[in-house]
Amino acid sequence: MNVVVCAKQIPDPSSPQSLDPETGFLVREGKLILDDSDAYGVEMGLRLAEESGGGEVTLVSMAPGGEVSGLRTALAMGAAKAILVSDDALKGSDALSTAKVLAKAVERANPDLVIAATESTDGYTGTMPVQMAELLGMPSVTFAKKVTVEGDKVRVERQTEAGYDEVECTLPVVVTVTAGVVEPRYPSFKGIMAAKSKPVDQLSIADLGFEPSEVGAAGARQQVTSVVDAESRQAGEVVVDEGDAHERVLAFLEQIKVI
Amino acid sequence: MSIERVWVLAEAGEAGPVSSVLELLTKARSMAPVVEAIAWGPASSSHASVLGSYGAGAVYDVGDLGDALPGVPVSAAIAGLIEAGERPDVILVPATYDGRDVAGRLSARLDRPVVTNVVDLEVEGDEVRSKHGIFGGAQVATACLTAERPWIFVVRAKSFSAEDAGGPPAEVRQASLGESVAASIARTNAAKVLARHAEERSGPKLDEATVVVSGGRGLGSGESYAMIEELAKLLDGAPGASRAIVDAGWVPYAYQVGQTGKTVKPTVYIACGISGATQHLVGMKGSKNIVAINKDQDAPIFSVADLGIVGDVHKVLPKLIEALKARS
Ligand SMILES: Cc1cc2nc3c(=O)[nH]c(=O)nc-3n(C[C@H](O)[C@H](O)[C@H](O)COP(=O)(O)OP(=O)(O)OC[C@H]3O[C@@H](n4cnc5c(N)ncnc54)[C@H](O)[C@@H]3O)c2cc1C
Ligand SMILES: Nc1ncnc2c1ncn2[C@@H]1O[C@H](COP(=O)(O)O)[C@@H](O)[C@H]1O
Prior knowledge:
The complex is a heterodimer. Chain A is built from 7 helices and 13 strands. By secondary structure, chain A is of the alpha/beta class. Chain A has one domain: 3-Layer(aba) Sandwich (Rossmann fold), CATH 3.40.50.620. In chain A, strand 7 and strand 8 form a beta hairpin. The radius of gyration of chain A is 21 Å and the shape is globular. Chain B is an alpha/beta fold. In chain B, strands 9-8-7-10-6-1-4-5-11 form a 9-stranded mixed beta sheet, sandwiched between helices. The chains are: A alpha/beta, B alpha/beta. At the A-B interface, helix 3, helix 4, strand 7, strand 9 and strand 12 of A face helix 3, helix 4, strand 7, strand 8 and strand 9 of B. Strand 13 of chain A pairs parallel with strand 17 of chain B. Flavin-adenine dinucleotide (FAD) sits at the interface of chains B and A.
């Protein structure tokens, strides 16, 4: 089984993020890392490929500046190879432009199953995988909290308001997985060494048949007019518990007439 | 070209349209003179009176989808209406599981961008300005679409309050798929729901409760969540959770509050052993009052708490529970 896993490479979320005040684009500086959300997808893909006997995982990523550090992490986990789309013209891409580009890249890997995360850590639009599925002409099952493959069918437990649905679909299909779906493995030393020589196929938009006007900021067709800090609340009183803090809570609940 | 016509994706559960739909209809009324809804499901036509009451003049009924997921057929039906000459300026979509699927599919089908995580909308002349949270909700960006219409917005729950306008029942119009559309989506629509499972929970619903008591990783173990449930029960509230403990499997996903979970605005939110990551805050910082119990005095949750207790949940919660029991 050919499994393609979308692997977004993002700035380390623990370092502060900002938008360029001029362009309104996300400032991406320094090394990018594999989005945690996608580490679950990579793990899921590896397990399903292993279980199917003789399958492999191909990563697909769109990132600026030929960035591969996040991909190397996923390759070290066990993915076989990667396709990276990197092009200056992609700056400012929205979810739909990203989907157009990644759909073309995914097609090249001839997948039986495409895995993405329900939402990325930095962009979290959560629509990219479904847009991509539509462009690929594939069905999609989002919010998967359990995924199994039997023969040419995938079975998914899909989160719902009430609980979950059991969904079945014939391959090929795009599945988006939630955080916690599986426990991502840590790359072994051997894996890290092996990752260094695994193939990363780097493509430009021209390689995929796009004009600059179709993608990036031009393709996004939206303008960010301002960015401000979200309304913040005033911090109230902070009390250190000396064994009687529960009384303060009770008094507060009484004051707001909850009890 | 001013904003004349707004469509609202009217997802419904067993009890009728979900609350976000009523919020969006209320907002839509202030945006344009014509407000219409798109509905599906076995009972979709029967929702015409409540949809009308909140402002929909008409409801396009896609009909019963059987065991299909809504993303593909509903987006195809909407695209079909537009191809047939209907001209909505704006399509408002609730940020639900199915809502996001429909919006994503529709966006690709119509080749229109979609703006997600929207928390506010404003019509300014011929433009619609949307505000959406970025960086986990720490900042708010204002954006304006320059693409051709319809403009698609996926709006977070509780961004607007729902107000009944007492309108007459919406006129029901068929928007059924038709054979050619059904054939064209046969492949993409291949996912089938085999069974639906409801995770039972008693007491008030998380997103409607006036008191929410949430637990996080600071509880230390799944067993300790019993304290959260007991406290919630004593206060007639609903228990909630951070994503960390949902991922850890301590509680079902339906308990999650935040960016990917529920948005809650109770009279009081009590956060126990929760650090206060932006993705959690975005789902609860609209609460009227916030109480936080955390042993780390630098935990970000304290920056939004009206009352912060620097302490151990294993010490504070049992005493609080005993004291409440003694009162009742
Ligand atoms: C795309 C994306 C979406 C996300 N969506 C959500 C979401 O919807 N909801 C959500 O909650 N998170 C979400 N997150 C995750 C979020 O970033 C945090 O990881 C998560 O909220 C942390 O949960 P926590 O506060 O329980 O755990 P931690 O951050 O580990 O905090 C535990 C806290 O407990 C305190 N503590 C420890 N022991 C005790 C004790 N004995 N007594 C008192 N306090 C104690 C610690 O001081 C600490 O502050 C999302 C993340 C991403 C990337
Ligand atoms: N640039 C990208 N490269 C690879 N995968 C991506 C990219 N953008 C989005 N994805 C995938 O789509 C998911 C949802 O992204 P988003 O729409 O940004 O929330 C991500 O978690 C990834 O799995």
